[in-house]
Design brief:
The relative contact order is 0.22. The chain is 34% helix and 23% strand. The chain is of the alpha+beta class and 126 residues long.
Length: 126
């Protein structure tokens, strides 16, 4: 069993990968139930689709923090890293598609004396 971690925004996914029938369990639930939209389900399965390994590995993951989209992408990174640990030959194919890079974009913090991160209160000359 391979253990890796994936991150995106404030979401963290701890991924456990082992050979099996292709069952993906997230926080004790099936991935189709946890991620209801087909786009998010595609994001989770992307590493397997690229390498042609769909249905060959069982994934058990604990996902915490962030929103549903960040959680799906953190899970994708964790799965990609685990597949590289199993077989280093998978690395180039995943790297070309950008699945081994942690997305550095984060929410910018709100500054004091402003409405939001960049939006400011209306300036009045008089």
């Amino acid at each position: 069993m391979i253990n890796t971690i994936g991150r995106r925004k404030t979401a963290v996914a701890r991924v456990y990968l082992k050979e099996g029938s292709g069952a993906i369990t997230i926080n004790g639930r099936d991935y189709t139930e946890y991620f209801p939209t087909s786009i998010l389900q595609y994001v989770v399965l992307q590493p397997f689709e690229i390498l042609g390994l769909a249905g060959k590995y069982d994934v058990m993951a604990n996902v915490d923090g962030g929103g549903i989209s960040g959680q799906a992408e953190s899970l994708r990174l964790g799965i990609s890293k685990a597949l590289c640990v199993i077989n280093p030959d998978h690395r180039p194919a995943l790297k070309i598609k950008g699945l081994l890079r942690r997305d550095p974009r984060m929410v910018e913090r709100k500054k004091p004396g402003q409405k939001k991160a960049r939006k400011k209160f209306q300036f009045s000359k008089r």
